[in-house]
Amino acid sequence: MDLITTTNKEFHENGKLAYIETIAIIPPLFKSLYQNQRITKEGIIFIRIAQQAKYFNNGQLAWIMNYDDKGNYIKDNISSYRKDGTLIIY
After folding, report:
1. Distance between CA atoms of residues 53 and 59, nearest Å
2. Total-model pTM
3. Each residue of 22-47: pLDDT tens digit?
């Protein structure tokens, strides 16, 4: 089954990228196949796929999360950074 995908972006007031995510729209008939589904206010069922990232207003990456093509979070692939670019170790 081919899912419709879209990339959402949000920007800081200065025009720099603030947030980016790629989502796949799930047809209602197949929603039971995706355990990490989310639903918008409009009732659209979706999952996050690929990368999701948040950026500081200076363009520095704040964090990044990776998802597989079923919407499952890949736990060993997360990185978080401070605004000055130094890595946060958990």
Report:
1. 12
2. 0.84
3. 999 999 999 999 999 999 999 999 99
> Hey, is 22 helix, strand or coil?
strand
Tokens of 73: 């979070």
The three-state secondary structure class of 81 is: strand
pLDDT in tens, 61-76: 999 999 999 999 998 7
Q: How many residues does the chain have?
A: 90
The whole-angstrom separation of Cα 53 and Cα 64 is 4
CB 9 within 8 A of CB 19: yes
Residues 6+ apart with CB under 8 A from 1: 27, 30
